[in-house]
UniProtKB/TrEMBL annotation:
The lineage of its organism: Bacteria, Pseudomonadati, Pseudomonadota, Betaproteobacteria, Rhodocyclales. This is Sulfur oxidation c-type cytochrome SoxX. Residues 110-217 form the Cytochrome c domain. Keywords: Heme, Iron, Metal-binding, Signal. InterPro entries: Cyt_c-like_dom, Cyt_c-like_dom_sf, Thiosulf_SoxX.
Length: 222
């Protein structure tokens, strides 16, 4: 076996041990295991896994190592047992508080053509990017939007006919802005990236996406 294969193998062994630990305790709840000794052992193992993850990568360009650090929501949602309803509610409340509503109080003013460009672009955030300003939303990786676009993912629901089907009440407009800014405010364990909160997209870019979803002239609503 080559030397290179050893690191991933070691990680696999540690992860397997971690999972075996979970099975032994019947459920995964760090710090709340059946015995205090087992809880400490789980935590020590988890700390070692995190350390190994941190030392396995190096910061390059704009890709700094803070990307390795999971926040409270990511930790809860990547645990083998999903958070209970009360935890979900608390996490969502915290995420809701991070949403920045339009600075001028107005959700309109975007250009759907710009929105289309952002929705289809999957680039940005890679270490070679000089600045994050050229980021795209990668929306088509998960959603169908313009029915004329043949390549669309299905991880998220189809957004074809978004405003045509849902209208443009204040409630739906506000919800959509919030969802684009921080999807986890509405479903803590959502797979959708937190575009505004995560500084993937700017306020102006989110405004263009709003136009793409709501403008009657947008192909999404044809
Ligand atoms: C990695 C997959 C993924 C990407 C990328 C993604 N989404 Fe989503 N999106 C989802 C999922 C999954 C849902 C369903 C609700 C949930 O679990 O959050 C969703 C829900 C939504 C909703 C609410 C739909 C409803 O019926 O309530 C909107 C609007 C939306 N996404 C727009 C976008 C836009 C615009 C982009 C690009 C900036 C985008 N999404 C990128 C996965 C994704």
């Amino acid at each position: 076996m080559s030397k290179k294969a050893i690191a991933p193998l070691a990680l696999t062994v540690v992860l397997a041990a971690l999972l075996a630990g979970c099975v032994k305790h019947g459920h995964y709840a760090p710090g709340a295991s059946a015995t205090p000794a087992a809880g400490a052992a789980d935590q020590a193992l988890e700390a070692r896994v995190e350390e190994m993850m941190l030392t396995s990568f190096k910061a390059t360009g704009i890709a700094s190592l803070d990307r390795q650090v999971r926040d409270e929501v990511q930790k809860a949602c990547s645990s083998p047992v999903q958070p209970d309803a009360e935890t979900m509610r608390r996490l969502e409340e915290g995420q809701m508080a991070t949403i920045q509503w339009p600075s001028n109080g107005d959700f309109t003013g975007g250009d759907w053509k710009e929105g289309a460009r952002i929705a289809i672009s999957g680039r940005g955030l890679t270490w070679t990017d000089a600045s994050p300003d050229n980021n795209g939303g990668g929306c088509y990786n998960c959603h169908a939007m313009d029915p004329g676009e043949v390549s669309a993912g299905t991880i998220g629901p189809s957004l074809v006919g978004y405003a045509r089907l849902r209208g443009n009440s204040e409630e739906i407009v506000r919800y959509t802005w919030g969802k684009l800014w921080n999807a986890k405010a509405y479903n803590a364990c959502s797979n959708m990236p937190r575009n505004g909160y995560g500084k993937i997209l700017t306020e102006t870019q989110i405004r263009h996406l709003m136009a793409y979803l709501f403008d009657p002239a947008s192909p999404v609503n044809k």
